[in-house]
Design goal:
Layout lengths: L1 H9 L1 E3 L1 H23 L2 H6 L21 H17 L3 H17 L7 H13 L10 H5 L5 E3 H21 L3 H4 L5 H4 L16 H23 L4 H18 L5 H8 L6 H14 L18 H20 L11 H4 L14 E10 L6 E3 L8 H7 L3 H17 L6 E10 L5 E2 L31
Antiparallel strand pairs: 1-2, 3-4, 3-5, 5-6
Helix pairs in contact: 2-4, 2-13, 2-14, 4-5, 5-6, 6-8, 8-11, 8-15, 11-12, 12-13
């Protein structure tokens, strides 16, 4: 096995697919940043709120006030530099750092595809994506061929995302009860042609079972040459449908263009030729026949070591929820960063009581004074949000003259069509609970079971 791995690492392939992927990635990221800015979301999400929910260990990552716009400019410009392959290594590092900083500024905006972009851009730091058809290659040496692993690493990451999303759908709520699609799809009754069918059970179960089968099978269909074209049509159909049904931004388009990397280099050569014609320059200078290679054995070993650790982490991290007791969808301990995409419809209510033990005075908090409607909605059903907000309230009122404030919450949550039920122990002083990755014993029992992986 070791010899086969070493043999695979020595294989080379055309650099055109990697170059085309770099261009598509950079252009899509630039478009995403422009779209985010144009919709006014920079101000709405990062300037208007007075409080921001942070990731554990990244409490120091906060919006930069008016300079947040500078951060978005930096992210957009670096995406453009990645697309054209100008000072690529510096550009992709800046993109990764700026995009990830934006992602970490407020946990309220967490989306699986933001996490995917951070992982992918981090991976691309270690790939020779500027070796061919780039400004860097035009000014230096163009390498027409690259190691096969540089393409395979992107394919493997895409396959992990799809396959784990499929595994996550193998649960009783999704497959047996059609939840939460039974809640979401009928609400799209006003869609032309589709709207009249989206309330029917057979359509809902077709979507739920079809979605699971798609996610589980699509990596294998893309890897196998005989089914690749069929698989790509499935990719386009699936992501176009999800874009029509759900407001998930640029993600469907990103996944569609990303899957092109599975195709042979002949397609990518045609794409690059079309690009060169549009911008009126000759691409013949890039076709040198040269092969990109590591500069030293140490560099090669370090790179191999990085990929082994990186992909081992991607395989293990989604299963960290097994370290926690209780129902995952209820506690959400280990839920993020595990490719559990659109599996829950959760709604909550959280009423916070402030108690001054010295005077015995108590009062209830108007959440609207501290949180935006979007933040309050997300906070109401996520326990780590509730705890962090409780700490913020304690600090706020202690700074206003109260001493040793205690914070309690009356909380109810409804999950996937079930009746609302108590969520957080109302007798626990959350101000005294430390933030950690340990199991949250103050979450009340679910008293139900969702069978699955």
């Amino acid at each position: 096995m070791r010899s086969s791995i070493q043999s695979h690492l020595k294989e080379e392939t055309e650099a055109a697919p990697l170059a085309a992927f770099r261009i598509f990635f950079g252009v899509m990221m630039l478009a995403s940043i422009v779209r985010f800015w144009a919709n006014g979301w920079v101000e709405k999400l990062y300037l208007e709120p007075s409080f921001f929910f942070s990731y554990h260990g990244f409490e120091w990552v906060k919006p930069l006030g008016a300079y947040t716009y500078v951060l978005f400019v930096l992210c957009g410009l670096s995406a453009l530099m990645v697309a054209i392959g100008y000072k690529y290594r510096m550009a992709i590092i800046i993109f990764f750092l700026s995009f990830t900083y934006i992602e970490l500024m407020d946990k309220t905006t967490y989306l699986n595809h933001y996490y995917f972009i951070s992982l992918l851009s981090f991976l691309m730091i270690f790939l020779p994506a500027n070796a061919y058809f780039s400004v860097d290659a035009a000014k230096g040496i163009s390498f027409q061929k690259v190691p096969r692993w540089s393409l395979d690493s992107i394919k493997i990451l895409l396959a992990i995302v799809y396959f784990y999303a499929g595994l996550a759908k193998l649960n009783s709520d999704w497959l047996v009860y059609g939840m939460p699609l039974k809640i979401w799809l009928p609400s799209k009754y006003d869609l032309p042609l589709l709207g009249d069918f989206l309330h029917k059970d057979w359509v809902i179960y077709a979507f739920s079972w079809g979605g699971a089968l798609y996610d589980l099978s699509i990596p294998f269909l893309l890897f196998w040459k005989r089914t690749r074209v069929f698989a790509f049509f499935l990719v386009v159909f699936f992501h176009v449908m999800t874009r029509i049904l759900f407001p998930i931004g640029m993600f469907p388009y990103i996944m569609i263009v990303s899957t092109l990397i599975f195709f042979d280099s002949s397609l990518h050569h045609k794409i690059l030729t079309a690009i060169s014609r549009v911008f009126r320059f000759s691409r013949s200078a890039f076709d040198t026949g040269l092969v990109w290679a590591e500069k030293s054995q140490l560099s090669k070993r370090l790179r191999v070591g990085f990929f082994l650790v990186f992909f081992a982490a991607q395989i293990i991290i989604p299963f960290r929820h097994l370290l926690y007791p209780g129902e995952l969808f209820w506690t959400e301990e280990g839920f993020r960063f595990s490719w559990r995409v659109m599996l829950m419809e959760k709604a909550g209510y959280a009423n916070f009581k402030i108690l001054d033990p010295g005077t015995g005075d108590e009062f209830y908090v108007d959440n609207a004074k501290f949180l935006t409607p979007f933040q309050e909605k997300q906070m109401s059903f996520q326990p780590d949000f509730i705890l962090e907000y409780a700490h913020y309230l304690a600090n706020h009122f202690e700074a206003n003259g109260h001493e040793k404030i205690e914070v309690y919450v009356e909380s109810y949550v409804a999950l996937n069509g079930r009746r609302s039920r108590p969520y957080i122990d109302p007798d626990v002083n959350l101000a005294a609970v430390k933030r950690s990755l340990a199991h949250k014993t103050w979450i009340l029992p679910f008293n139900d079971e969702i069978k699955g992986i």
